[in-house]
Amino acid sequence: MFTIKLLLFIVPLVISSRIDQDNSSFDSVSPEPKSRFAMLDDVKILANGLLQLGHGLKDFVHKTKGQINDIFQKLNIFDQSFYDLSLQTSEIKEEEKELRRTTYKLQVKNEEVKNMSLELNSKLESLLEEKILLQQKVKYLEEQLTNLIQNQPETPEHPEVTSLKSFVEKQDNSIKDLLQTVEEQYKQLNQQHSQIKEIENQLRMTNIQEPTEISLSSKPRAPRTTPFLQLNEIRNVKHDGSPWTLIQHRIDGSQNFNETWENYKYGFGRLDGEFWLGLEKIYSIVKQSNYVLRIELEDWKDNKHYIEYSFYLGNHETNYTLHVVKITGNVPNAIPENKDLVFSTWDHKAKGHFSCPESYSGGWWWHDECGENNLNGKYNKPRTKSKPERRRGLSWKSQNGRLYSIKSTKMLIHPTDSESFE
């Protein structure tokens, strides 16, 4: 900029000097060599000005290049900062996903702790009742012993009485120890429950919302709080004059059968409505003798069908593996015969049975591929439109390959050494 101003200052001087020289030429005639030297001086002045202008332009270019380099450096720093920020954003998202998974696991543990607390509370109450009864018996025995001692002061204590007192005292001590152990476990469970509640509250403070609905075909639901059926709760029904133990009943869809492994293990529902007796109870019954499994079906046209199997049921270590052989019945293509069928739920999948409980809903005995028959699926009302929806529900596949929705089901067991059956 300085060079340009200098040039603008020099050029008028050169032009003015040239005009003065021209005017002087009119006044006096100078020799030819002198005029030539004057023009040479003008050229030198002009060349010097142009040279200074070139140096100024060169400095200006260098300065502009330095400014452009500074701008590029700042842009590179901005790009690096933006990249680092994107990496931090990705890490925050991953941490958020992990926190959601942790929250879900904590909720599952919380429900398990709740169920264990209820079960321990029930056992504690029963133990307290037994303790009261034993104390009453001990008190009665002490009164009897006191009367015997008062009536026969000189007679030595009978050995049987002494052993009975010792036995009662041992029983009382054992019950006290057991009650103390149960109380300690109950306190520990309550502490864990409080800790889980506190962690859940802290997670809620971070405004992270858990998914309210989870698709049946993608992720499982959180465990429900359906209370377990008690061990002494068994419903017997009459068939051909002999009692059968009812282990499953579906009639109206009032009970959600898409339950957890824990609930399928110990049972859920109501004996006067829809229920599942529980795999552990079924196993404890059938391991005592040989049993027959009977399945009764009724479709929405009130057509009734049945089928009976001789069967074997494994324990929890085998995932309650079921092996059946057909005896009689009018339902074809029922449970696969002569195969080891493994029981699975959405939260407990046996190896090799990856997506059956998620795709079909409910817990059931599956083989190496998902079948079309599932008595613990979702209860669908009549006129369910799509075939996939019917397949995921309570359904049975006929011999001709047509899929029928089922209105009601019963699963019953009966020992083979009892009266004859159909």
Automatic annotation (TrEMBL):
Pfam families associated with the record: Fibrinogen_C
Highest taxon, organism lineage: Eukaryota
UniProt xrefs under SUPFAM superfamilies: Fibrinogen C-terminal domain-like
Coiled-coil segments: 92-209
Signal peptide, first to last residue: 1-16
Family annotation (InterPro entries): Fibrinogen-like_C, Fibrinogen_a/b/g_C_1, Fibrinogen_a/b/g_C_dom, Fibrinogen_C-term_domain
Gene Ontology MF: a single term: heparin binding
Matches recorded under Gene3D superfamilies: Gamma Fibrinogen, chain A, domain 1 (3.90.215.10)
Quaternary context: Interacts with ANGPTL8. Interacts with ITGB3.
Protein name: Angiopoietin-related protein 3
UniProt source species: Cercocebus atys (Sooty mangabey)
